[in-house]
Amino acid sequence: MIKLKSLPNPPQAALQKAGWDWALGTDTAPYVVNDMVIVAEQQAESYYEAAGTLYDMLIEAGQYAIDNNLFREMGIPENLLELIKLSWGDDRQIHLYGRFDLAGGFNDEPVKLIEFNADTATCVPETAIVQWAHLRMNGMDESRQFNTLFETLVGQFAYLKAENSDLTPSMLFSAMRGYPEDDTNVTVLMEAAKEAGFDVEFAYIDDVEFSNGEGIFYQEPEHGHFVRFDFWFKLVPWEHIGNDEPELALMLTEIVKNRKAVVLNPAYTLLFQSKYILKILWDLYPYHPLLLQTERDVLPHKKSVSKVLLGREGANVVIHDENGTVLETAAGEYDAQSRIYQEYVTLPADEGGYTYQAGVFYAGEACALGFRRGGKILDNTAQFVGHVVD
Fold it and tell me: Whole-model pTM?
């Protein structure tokens, strides 16, 4: 059973007082709750260790996928293969950050990997800033939290700058229009990049200009000048670029190949983003204590969860019983995609019946914990719940 601590003062006021209205966004506040999950020190440690071990395993699985040409099975668009291999083989193409979704960790339940959001992970403002401010606002010691996400991101940007010292530290950040939550995530990342010494600018992706031979540009509104950026962070999924913008996929390949820009997160993160990597992990590390059995077909005699290869936010997830019969399903737009079947694991719950999934951020190392709670399938209606180490 998950134990909660309800704090009287909500975090919004603390953020406004600190002049951090940007961390709230218009979309973050209502679904951040006053409860905090109580986590033991040992538990926080086990989440930290699990993420580190899993990331090393994912590197092995990614190499295996490349060596065995498993891109089609993984649902990866063919027009991104060159860029994936190119970025994988170049140490300067740094994976900035991702988020592990984990089950277990309470009441002696083992920690298990549900999936890894490697390419466009969100929940950054809630994890890095809102839950921290929540402790501050209630007079609690902010070190009682497994949370160095903001500082670790600053370190990652500094490392990125040092590894790419032949380029100018100028970074354009982009998201898709009409998703305020994404804007807020990008804002936090921009602050971290700025602190690491980057010149930063924001533009929605439809306002970004790409030139095959020259690089990535933004037309500044004041004088209409085109400004070139040597780094581009996009909160736009790689598979959307590959499937919906094939010309852009080819252009970005040339831009990266010719050192006209570094694109973040790198294209190889699509290897980790595809749920098929969960099957590869199981094939490489069968019965590893951090993994759930994952196959291409319904698991015989086991309750399972089927997921589309490149779905987002719990869309099109289906829970099956031991005979493969559908018990519960989530709506979504990805139903035409292939699926993998992962052994079902019961998520820990609180007294009110909410289920909880741990989100552990990884940015060169495991650096923060936050929780999402909801029903049996956690979708985009799930709430964010902070934590306190007690």
Answer: 0.94
Per 3-state DSSP, the chain is made up of helix, strand and coil in percentages (nearest 5) of: 35, 25, 40
| Residue 251: C-alpha distances to residues 32, 173, 227, 244, 265 (Å) | 39, 18, 18, 14, 16
Q: What pLDDT digit, counting tens, does each position of 81-137 carry?
A: 999 999 999 999 999 999 999 999 998 899 999 999 999 999 998 899 888 888 888
Q: Backbone phi, then psi, for 75, in 5-degree steps?
A: 75, 25
Vertex 248 angle, CA 207 and 259, to 5°: 95
DSSP sequence for 28-97? TGGGEEEEEEEE-HHHHHHHHHHHHHHHHHHHHHHHHHHHTT-TTTTT--GGGHHHHHHHHT-TTS----
> How many other C-beta atoms are found inside a 10 Å radius of the C-beta of residue 309?
21
d(CA 109, CA 221): 54
Please give the Cα distance from 19 to 15 (Å, whole number): 6
Query: How far, in Å, CA of 342 to CA of 303, rounded?
Result: 9
* Other Cβ atoms within 10 Å of 378 Cβ, number: 21
CA torsion 282→287→290→294, rounded to 10°?
40
